[in-house]
């Protein structure tokens, strides 16, 4: 602080305050330094921009809703005023009629017309009130994407995922809920329906009644369908991918209906419906820790006639050609009554496109379903035909496919037997051992015996029904050149499981051939 003395004739003194370099000025503190990291500044700018967009979108949606409600309110006020005026006119007319009983027929007719107009206006008012109620319910129950969650967001410091604001606004805007009167953006052609009861049994019966009202196609499926018999280690997708030619073209777009999520109409079994998640979670391919939710079109794959297959009691069947349409979505009560297997299957299907799934993620998705944040769609299945050509071709291909599988398995067993047996014919030893598949020979073709080998035995000659398995003839060679004639046992499938005893006077105990997988009875 510096003080200057005043003039001798002037008693005024002036005091000047000068800030010092060592002491801060009272009331003024040093400003906080801004972050110098350019990435953090960019992230903050993006976050601010996103918040502005969200606020703008929310305000726009609010303004549109307020505008619609204002129009409806204005219309109701006008109709109410008109009703009041007509009511007053009616009361005045009725009073005049009472006072002058000699009023003519024209006055009565006019009063009748006015009362009819009043009834019509009251109906319009009721419709408008119902419309306003639907708008309010729709704005509260609008289905939007669930909240986005990321694993270890704070620790990893991953860049902020930029969501598609237009897609979110299209799904969260109150105008996206279509009603029978006010048109909105296309949303899978759904309409708001007022249900009398939301009990699970009533909902299921309602869907079944809709399916029962659908007529059957001109060529419905057969009453009794033959199953597609496949080897135990083969899946349906592997089998269908092995098709070729015309059958492969016909099955270019097929769908497998899971037994856990599919229900068939009891009164008309050709039609049914299945459960499918409306929202699915996927991982950003560029950032493995960023995940996003997207609404899927559950009927996109089946808008055109699609060949369908279903599984019942462990056997696959060809169902026919089907088209999909939307039914009422699954309610919270119905979700609570689903079996544990079905609920777990739907949860896993919801996050099937997500990477690094943990039990915590499965639990969170299950809780979102329990809270109603996620929805399950009920997709109707309308049978539009039954392709007999596909049906017969699939059965024929299944028979050939099974035969080829068993043949390759038996060939592999022979190779393993030759490796483990140095005295096999493939190694040039005088000992003889062979395994053959009778189904590899055409019908009626003679089988030439080989020295030291027994003749292959046909299943039909032994009195056994054809099962699709081959009969095996094997010979075991001794070191001194003596051969034991053996006849193979026929492995019978299903209820015919047993052993065909060989012909001969003397039998010896059974020898288990572990390599070939068959039981062989040896006689001397």
Automatic annotation (TrEMBL):
Every DUF6697 domain range: 254-396
The organism's place on the tree of life at top rank: Eukaryota
Residues covered by region (Disordered): 138-158
InterPro entries from the UniProt entry: DUF6697 (IPR046520)
Record's protein name: DUF6697 domain-containing protein
Source species taxonomy: Eukaryota, Fungi, Dikarya, Basidiomycota, Agaricomycotina
């Amino acid at each position: 602080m510096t003080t200057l003395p005043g003039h001798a004739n002037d008693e005024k003194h002036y005091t000047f305050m000068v800030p010092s370099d060592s002491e801060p000025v009272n009331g003024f503190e040093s400003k906080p330094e801004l972050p110098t990291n350019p990435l953090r500044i960019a992230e903050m700018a993006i976050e601010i921009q996103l918040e502005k967009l969200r606020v703008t979108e929310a305000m726009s949606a609010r303004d549109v809703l307020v505008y619609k409600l204002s129009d409806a309110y204005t219309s109701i006020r006008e109709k109410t005023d008109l009703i009041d005026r007509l009511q007053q006119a009616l009361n005045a007319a009725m009073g005049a009629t009472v006072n002058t009983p000699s009023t003519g027929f024209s006055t009565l007719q006019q009063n009748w017309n006015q009362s009819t107009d009043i009834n019509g206006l009251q109906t319009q008012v009721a419709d408008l009130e119902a419309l306003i109620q639907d708008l309010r319910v729709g704005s509260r129950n609008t289905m939007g994407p669930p909240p986005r969650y990321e694993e270890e967001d704070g620790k990893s410091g991953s860049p902020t995922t930029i969501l598609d604001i237009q897609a979110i606004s299209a799904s969260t805007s109150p105008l996206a809920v279509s009603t029978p009167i006010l048109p909105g953006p296309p949303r899978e052609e759904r309409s708001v329906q007022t249900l009398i009861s939301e009990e699970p049994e009533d909902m299921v019966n309602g869907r079944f009644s809709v399916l029962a009202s659908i007529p059957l196609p001109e060529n419905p499926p057969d009453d009794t369908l033959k199953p597609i018999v496949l080897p135990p280690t083969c899946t349906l997708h592997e089998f269908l991918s092995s098709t070729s030619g015309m059958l492969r073209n016909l099955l270019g777009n097929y769908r497998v209906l899971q037994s856990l999520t599919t229900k068939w109409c009891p009164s008309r079994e050709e039609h049914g419906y299945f459960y499918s998640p409306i929202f699915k979670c996927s991982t950003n391919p560029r950032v493995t820790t960023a995940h996003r939710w997207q609404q899927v079109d559950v009927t996109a794959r089946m808008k055109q006639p699609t060949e369908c297959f279903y599984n019942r009691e462990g056997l696959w069947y060809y169902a026919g050609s089907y088209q999909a349409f939307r039914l009422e979505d699954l309610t919270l009560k119905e979700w609570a009554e689903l079996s544990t297997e079905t609920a777990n299957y739907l949860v896993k299907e919801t996050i099937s496109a997500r990477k690094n799934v943990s039990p915590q993620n499965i639990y969170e998705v299950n809780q979102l379903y329990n809270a109603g944040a996620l929805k399950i769609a009920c997709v109707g299945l309308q049978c539009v035909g039954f392709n007999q050509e596909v049906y017969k071709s699939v059965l024929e291909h299944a028979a050939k496919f099974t035969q080829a599988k068993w043949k390759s398995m038996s060939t592999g067993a022979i190779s393993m037997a030759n490796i483990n047996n140095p005295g096999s014919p493939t190694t040039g030893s005088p000992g003889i051992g062979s395994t053959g598949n009778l189904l590899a020979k055409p019908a009626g073709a003679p089988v030439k015996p080989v020295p030291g080998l027994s003749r292959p035995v046909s299943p039909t000659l032994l009195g056994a029904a054809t099962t699709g398995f081959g009969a095996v003839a094997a010979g075991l060679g001794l070191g001194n050149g003596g051969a034991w004639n053996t006849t193979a046992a026929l492995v019978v499938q299903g209820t015919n499981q047993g052993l065909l005893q060989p012909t001969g006077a003397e039998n010896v105990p059974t020898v288990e051939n572990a390599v070939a997988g068959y039981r062989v009875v040896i006689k001397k």
